[in-house]
Design goal:
globular; 21% helix; alpha/beta; 5-stranded parallel β-sheet; 36 strands; 12 helices
Length: 510
């Protein structure tokens, strides 16, 4: 047998021994030109696409839960029978193939198109028009789910951004590093909105919401009525007032336009300063280093990310960046900028070409306040993501919801959480009454090191580490009062999925 034959993908049309699938094992191979995986649940056989439709993650390395399959990279979830993407960040389905048992073998046949999923009809009256205020993760995921759930009424998205909904995590990662082209960034192709009857209005600034009359007013004079409304206005970067800084000298990263502006500035920059040691700030530092720029980072804390990740993990992340040439100025701030000269609190001066500020964000609550919605460090929502105003829902960075896992009311600024809240809010706008009980998840990328984090620890009194940070293979558990509140993993994607599943199983009452 030639080397090429030995290394060629397995042809699943020739069959797989049933015994190979015992113990939840997954077999990979090809069906024609498609990468496919085969697995068995009880006596039932499944053959589905091998790659997640989000970032092409290897589903063979994921976790099977009931009749669903979860991606190891960013925890998307798919229905094994239909291929449907049940949970973001994946929005598109994976393929399904016919598979049958012939003797002691599982034979994979032709690709099949799953019949439309029958949606349960709500006893309540369906809305005829829905308005989504916001063009980010939550808004797009909600619009997508509304159409998937069979909503055929008027659907309008009012976005203050100049660009269509985009892959925001990529703005500080691959796109900023120069490894992702522009056309990777939009979440949907331009024709998607027209094809699905979604009226996407860009540069649309909503000035007020009349919850009694169920109407939104725009800055240009237009107004729109609604039967149900989703408020998904997201968050805004915290701005700094630094003496001497010019009006355009401080770069902030939130929108596609922001990221492109930083890329333009990086084109001629030799030295850059990142103000802030947030996840965004450090991802920006990594991306600028990938472009060969000398990067300095300044932050007021003793250890980067200590409040979120703990001192030991924070020190690991700092060493990771320092090994790539990043210079840290911790327990310091910027006191003045004169042209290209930056002065720090300890009188250190740096000559820099580019300044990027990443010191956190604040939820955009102006509309919620104007509309008289209940607020508590965010927009207060019930388990179904409905606000204090009937028919008005909130999702994403602004939503503060009763988390059944921590037993607390929380608000988090995670991309995947925003998408999943948008999906659940969409179902509830249609009367399905599905509680949002998803375990929070986010990921952060630093060079070739990915950190996955499940749960939510607003604070913790102990941190346990199984494995080795230095070897980039570990599970970090954040404990409060003897109870696991969150788990971070490096190099253990399957363990992250298992931790997520364990938290779901141990759900606490709200």
């Amino acid at each position: 047998m030639t080397d090429d034959a030995q290394n060629s993908p397995r042809d699943l049309r020739e069959g797989v021994a049933i015994s190979e699938l015992d113990g939840d094992r997954i077999v990979t191979g090809r069906v024609g030109e498609d990468d496919v995986i085969v697995l068995k649940r009880g006596d039932e056989l499944f053959a589905v696409g091998a790659h997640c439709t989000h970032y092409h993650g290897p589903l063979a390395e994921g976790l099977v839960v009931g009749d669903t399959l979860r991606c190891p990279w960013h925890h998307a979830c798919f229905d094994l029978r239909s291929g449907e993407a049940l949970r973001a960040p994946a929005l598109d389905p994976i393929g399904c193939w016919r598979v049958e048992r012939v003797g002691d073998r599982a034979i994979v046949g032709e690709k099949v198109v799953a019949p439309p999923k029958l949606r349960a009809r709500s006893a309540t009256k369906m809305p005829s028009s829905i308005v989504i205020v916001g063009g980010g993760a939550a808004g797009l995921a909600a619009a997508d789910m509304l159409r998937r759930e069979g909503f055929d009424g008027t659907l309008r998205m009012l976005s203050a951004d100049a660009s269509p909904p985009c892959d925001r995590p990529n703005l500080s990662k691959d796109f900023l590093a120069g490894t992702a082209p522009d056309d990777w960034i939009p979440l949907r192709a331009p024709e998607y909105y027209a094809d699905h009857g979604i009226d996407l209005v860009l540069d649309a600034r909503v000035t007020s919401i009349d919850v009694a009359r169920r109407r939104v007013q725009l800055a240009g004079g237009a107004s729109h009525g609604y039967d149900a409304l989703l408020l998904a206005t997201g968050a805004e970067p915290v701005k700094l007032d630094i003496p001497g800084a010019g009006p355009t000298q401080l770069n902030y990263l939130r929108t596609f336009a922001d990221s492109r502006a930083i890329v333009a500035g990086a084109a001629s920059a030799k030295r850059a300063l990142v103000v802030g040691t947030s996840f965004i700030g450090l991802e920006v530092a990594a991306s600028l280093r990938a472009r060969g720029i000398d990067v300095h980072v300044v932050g007021p804390d003793k250890v980067p990310l200590e409040r979120v990740m703990g001192a030991e993990v924070g020190q690991f992340i700092r060493r990771l960046h320092e090994a790539k040439g990043v210079t840290f100025h911790m327990q310091s701030t910027v006191t003045r900028i004169d042209g290209k000269r930056v002065t720090l609190a300890d009188s250190t001066t740096l000559d820099l070409d580019l300044v990027v500020v990443g010191v956190g964000v604040r939820p955009s609550l102006a509309l919620a306040e104007q509309a008289g919605l209940a607020r508590d460090h965010g927009v207060v929502v019930d388990p179904f993501l409905e606000t204090s105003a009937p028919g008005v829902f909130a999702a994403g960075d602004i939503a503060r919801w009763p988390d059944p896992h921590s037993g607390e009311r929380i608000r988090v600024e995670h991309w995947v959480v925003a998408e999943r809240q948008g999906q659940v809010a969409a179902k509830n706008m249609l009367g399905q009454r599905e509680a949002f009980d998803v375990v929070p998840f986010f990921w952060s990328q630093h060079y070739d090191v990915a950190i996955n984090y499940v749960g939510h620890a607003q604070d913790f009194d102990a941190v346990t580490i199984d494995g080795s940070l230095a070897d980039r293979n570990c599970t970090v558990t954040y404990v409060r009062g003897g109870r696991s509140m969150a788990v971070a993993t490096i190099g253990r994607d399957l363990e992250s999925l298992r931790a997520e599943r364990a938290m779901e199983s141990a759900m606490q009452p709200a």
